[in-house]
Amino acid sequence: MLGQMIKKPLLISGLIEHAVRFHGDTDVISVETTGGIERTHWEKIGINARRLASTLGKLGVEPGDRCGTIAWNNRRHLEIYFGVSGGGMVCHTLNPRLAPETLVYVINHAKDKILFVDRTFLPLVANLAPKLETVRRVVVLGPRDAEVGAMLEGLMFYDELLEAGDEAFKWPELDEMTASSLCYTSGTTGHPKGVVYSHRSTVLHSLVGCGPDAINIAARDTVMPVVPMFHVNAWGVPYIAAMQGARLVLPGPQLDGPSLAQLIDTEQVTLALGVPTIWMGLLAALRDGSATAASMKRTIVGGSALPPSMIAAFQDEFGIELIHAWGMTETSPLGTLNQLKSKHVGMDSAQLVELRKGQGRPPYGVELRIVGEDNMPLANDGLTQGRLQIRGHWIVDTYFGMDAPALTPDGWFDTGDIASLDAEGYLVIKDRAKDVIKSGGEWIASVELENIAIAHPGIANAAVIAAQHEKWDERPVVVAVKSPGSELDAAGLLAWFDGKVPAWQKPDAAFFVDALPVSGTGKVLKKELREIYGAVLTGNPASCEA
Ligand code: ADP
């Protein structure tokens, strides 16, 4: 016997129509690419999304076609999220920080028909244009502008498209399994791979993601996704904000600490989300005293390991709770969030610090396990380390354009991370499998060593990488950025590890740099560091100063 309830597909158009109907006058605030702040509200976003959807067919785009975006977090990009997906096309967010040849690969691989481009990225697109095989139209996000129009032949202007659109457009009743958006992994090894989200997976991810033990977004919140909309759909926040009718602040191109701090104060942001490097900048700005961030109660931090010293600094100095989360492009991205249980309330602070430095536990909808080299599950005792695998409603099955699923024979996605899990699912990421330092048959996790280095007051940022070693195969080497005015030297930094880790895990050498190389998504490029420092313990460390 089947249940006898209304069967209604889970669709992204339903999210925006909910926001229009019940939260129509709630603000959406957008820092514009050309400067200035634009204020609008959910009703207008919905109207513009419908107008956009109504024009796509006239541009020769068919259901299922990919529409690329190269844009900051701003109002027009938000409308494209809803207009393109709601209209039955696939919103393909592109990371402008990828190398040009990678961007060309990704656009051609996805067979993007249209590109929606912020003015900032027009020179980039003009450069790539001769190599783009499928793109028929490039639409600039803004009003007609003669100077911009001269930059590339045949440019169209977003605002003109909308003027010609139909605000009474009726959203198609799609199958909920229809593809809604596409995001490529950054492809640190080999070509990037595309992950195709569905309407169903996106709506389920939003339903769970808004909950109090997940991102915790209510209608009363003012949410600022600093995480780019080209990075796993800004962690799903645009959809969740519409579902909940939250005030939304889209910070545009200025992501430095002082700009963000000021925006938090002027717009009274209650919740922000981003990678740890962004919050390092914010911390420095708050310490300068130019802003207070008094309205901000919490931030969700993920994408790479959050140093515990940052958790304490934000909490103790500014009363802001940092909630550590883990996920990846293939997981939509919510995999775990570090939210407490009732039994943790009242824990002593040392225990709490220990618990909070991990990545948290999975919400309903995803399952986790760790496995050994033989793919057999390992103990969930909080100690044993293994390869982290995941499955669930918003986890990738098959990469775009591939025939075979990306799963183990028993249906799990292998994340490439090395982790431990405790009996309640609390996850601690030790390292990426490819970054683990294999010293004399033992593994040394770089994340813990980095956390120790960053906790030194004279250190602003640090990465620990494997350098080849004649006797031990690999040994850890720390590459660090000093805090302004710090006079720490390599010996001092190495001595800082004494007593904090077993002696054999201590890095063998330390180097200082002005900045660490980071990827388009703000993650430290360890591969590049290995190329520079990988031979310092064996060959001639000519270019490095120990
Ligand atoms: P890529 O960095 O390859 O583009 P993603 O952006 O999808 O891919 O990043 C996913 C990876 O980032 C995870 O597999 C994990 O290694 C790392 N990561 C994400 N969040 C965290 C976290 N909170 N702590 C440690 N590592 C994290």
Description:
The chain is an alpha/beta fold. Among the domains are: 12-254, ANL, N-terminal domain (Rossmann fold), CATH 3.40.50.12780; 437-533, 2-Layer Sandwich (GMP Synthetase, Chain A, domain 3), CATH 3.30.300. It has 17 helices and 24 strands. An 8-stranded mixed sheet has the order 2-1-11-10-12-13-14-15, with helices on both faces. It has a 7-stranded mixed sheet with strand order 7-6-5-3-4-8-9, sandwiched between helices. Adenosine-5'-diphosphate (ADP) binds at residues 185-186, 188, 302-306, 324-329, 359, 415-417, 429, 432, 521, 523. Residues 448-523 form the AMP-binding enzyme C-terminal domain. It comes from Pseudomonas extremaustralis. InterPro entries: AMP-bd_C, AMP-bd_C_sf, AMP-binding_CS, AMP-dep_synth/lig_dom, ANL_N_sf.
Summarize the SSE layout with pairings.
Layout lengths: L11 H12 L3 E5 L5 E5 H15 L9 E5 L4 H12 L3 E4 L6 H11 L3 E4 L4 H7 L8 E4 L5 H4 L6 E2 H6 L15 E6 L9 E5 H11 L12 E4 L6 H4 L1 H8 L2 E4 L6 H11 L3 E4 L1 H13 L9 E4 L6 H11 L2 E7 L6 E4 L11 H9 L8 E6 L14 E7 L20 E9 L5 E6 L4 E3 L2 E3 L1 H9 L4 E11 L3 E10 L7 H6 L13 E4 L13 H8 L13
This protein binds adenosine-5'-diphosphate.
Question: Any key phrases for this structure?
Answer:
546 residues; alpha/beta; Rossmann fold; GMP Synthetase, Chain A, domain 3; eight-stranded mixed β-sheet; seven-stranded mixed β-sheet; 17 helices; 29% helix; 23% strand; disordered C terminus; binds adenosine-5'-diphosphate
Task: Sum this structure up briefly.
With 546 residues, this protein is α/β, with parallel strands linked by helices.
